[in-house]
Write a structure and sequence with these properties.
Strand order of the largest sheet of chain A: 2-1-3-8-7-6
Number of domains of chain A: 2
Oligomer: homodimer
Number of strands of chain A: 11
Structural class of chain A: alpha/beta
Radius of gyration of chain A: 22 Å
CATH topology of the largest domain in chain A: Molybdenum Cofactor Biosythetic Enzyme, Chain A
CATH architecture of the largest domain in chain A: 3-Layer(aba) Sandwich
Order of helices and strands of chain A: EHHEHEHEHHEEEEHEHEEH
CATH class of the largest domain in chain A: Alpha Beta
Helix content of chain A: 25-40%
């Protein structure tokens, strides 16, 4: 059985303007690979409702599971929850379970649960809450979409809550070999290797170091014996 | 006149598997903002032809200009040029102008222009070459799509070649203010500010520092006087 497929949707003008360098994509990619889920596509869109709704619908229909990052805070530019509801035609309002979490938290910390903070309790009908041990305001899962915060510490905590609920496949194993020759010199044998091992993914990542060319060859697959055999043949070829 | 809109397509299994952290998106985002081009969407797809072709068609149709990164080297997994040709129904083969660039380069450096390296001279009919001062193998522009290498030093050199050919709008100006209060405390006045300045984009980026909450408020727009006025009002409100 093939591994489940996944997509990620990053919501945030700050990434697209170059102000912030996204960190969540790289984190999620690594976690999914370990868990045996194949991340097949990432999209980054701006804080505009039509763009978010369209991307949620497209990704939710095309992949087994979708993760979103960003846009669930208390300010006017946090519109992700409402967009998810719209994408699935679900009703959304402040929900009692989420409100209770926030009320307890703000009472305990002596701050006011004002109208802005109550926005963080807007959860679509039918969604399950995702625990936020960092700052309490929850994420949620609706259909096959998991909606998480953009702040990296919160995002990572939410991924840790959600991943165990997803049935992964065999983790992708990988081995790599550094070859200190230009890609053009190794491309022929590398293509033959890829043909001999059709179940493996063989990638070549070139670099330049002190003026000399080289490439890191990465061989990935879920069958460890095949990965071992391919890397052994690669070593022999370029020994 | 609104600024031209742009999208980026990052091609690479190594990003989606978490092996490599993409650097080109953040670089391009910053350069486009300075140049007055609005980056509206980024997609990351794997090294699979149907995914690349579909993304090129979708983005090319939806935005004024598209930039791709990755997949134009000499190895078997470098299929971007052929996918771009397919997306536009263009014929593709080794082209004389690109072959001449490579032949000169490899002759000068005493290396062989073998079949693998010749793959880097595969350029669709009708495309203009993009100069590669780092490692010679060119990128190309076809219709509104600019096809560039994934290696960051080469990508950046190609962006420097392409950007002057694109008519940008007014650069996006931004000012930011750090407010050491939780987003929930400032969201109300911030929403009112956004309504008072509908032409500006007002973003709130929360952080936690030594256990205390704060947010960086970023105000962006192409009219400097408006940005100044909005940031002044923000300062007053939270002084």
């Amino acid at each position: 059985m093939p591994n489940p497929s996944a997509a990620m949707l990053v919501i945030g003008d700050e990434i697209l303007s170059g102000r912030t360098r996204d960190a969540n994509m790289h984190y999620l990619a690594g976690e999914l690979t370990k868990h045996g889920v194949d991340l097949k596509e990432v999209r980054v869109v701006s804080d505009e409702a039509p763009a978010i709704v369209a991307a949620v619908r497209a990704l939710s229909g095309a992949y087994d599971v979708v993760f979103t990052s960003g846009g669930i805070g208390p300010t006017h530019d946090d519109i992700t929850a409402d967009c998810i509801a719209e994408a699935f035609g679900a009703h959304i309002d402040v929900r009692d379970d989420a409100r209770a979490l926030l009320a307890d938290h703000y009472a305990a910390t002596g701050r006011e649960l004002n109208a802005a903070r109550l926005r963080m309790a807007r959860i679509p009908d039918g969604a399950c809450l995702i625990d936020n041990p960092v700052s309490i305001a929850p994420g949620f899962s609706l259909e096959n979409v998991h909606v998480m915060a953009g702040v990296p510490s919160v995002f990572q905590a939410m991924v840790a809550s959600v991943l165990p609920t997803i049935t992964g496949g065999a983790p992708l194993l990988s081995q790599s070999l550094r070859i200190d020759r230009g890609e053009g010199d190794i491309a022929g044998p590398l293509g033959e290797l890829a043909q001999a091992f059709p179940d493996l993914s063989i990638g070549s990542y070139p670099f330049q170091e002190n003026g000399a060319f080289g490439a890191n060859i990465v061989i990935r697959g879920s069958d460890g014996a095949q990965v071992d055999a391919a890397i052994a043949r690669l070593r022999e070829t370029f020994a």
